Amino acid sequence: MTLEQQNAVAKGEQYLAIMGFSRSGLIAQLEFEGFPVEVATFAVDTIAPDWNAEAAEKAQQYLDTMAFSRQALIDQLVFDGFTPEEAEFGVTQVGL
Q: How far is CA 74 from CA 27, 29, 50, 90, 93, in A?
């Protein structure tokens, strides 16, 4: 692994430790941090988090700050880059 790849992996892990991200959302965040898309993608694929668990975490974060219907929260998670299946799982996990 190059130093830049190592740094991208470390940064991705830091982000995942504080909030839920979809795969595409985490890649975009790492790109925003200045990593090239191929390095960001490598980092996210190396970390390989449980995207269902990330969807559940993100769903809970939304519910901690505002009210959602089940469908609206699914739609929000899909908008955030989760697959429909991941979004459905996440919303179910938080009790909606």
A: 21, 21, 18, 8, 12
The type of residue at 80 is: D
pTM for the model stands at 0.94
- Digit-by-digit pLDDT tens for the chain (96 residues) are 999 999 999 999 999 999 999 999 999 999 999 999 999 999 999 999 999 999 999 999 999 999 999 999 999 999 999 999 999 999 999 999
Nearest CA to 52 among 9, 84, 75, 7?
Answer: 84
Q: Which tokens belong to 79?
A: 């908008």
Question: How many residues would you count in the chain?
Answer: 96
59 touches 92 (CB < 8 A): no
Burial class (CB in 10 A: 0-12, 13-18, 19+), 2: exposed
Is residue 22 exposed (0-12), middle (13-18) or buried (19+ Cβ within 10 Å)? buried
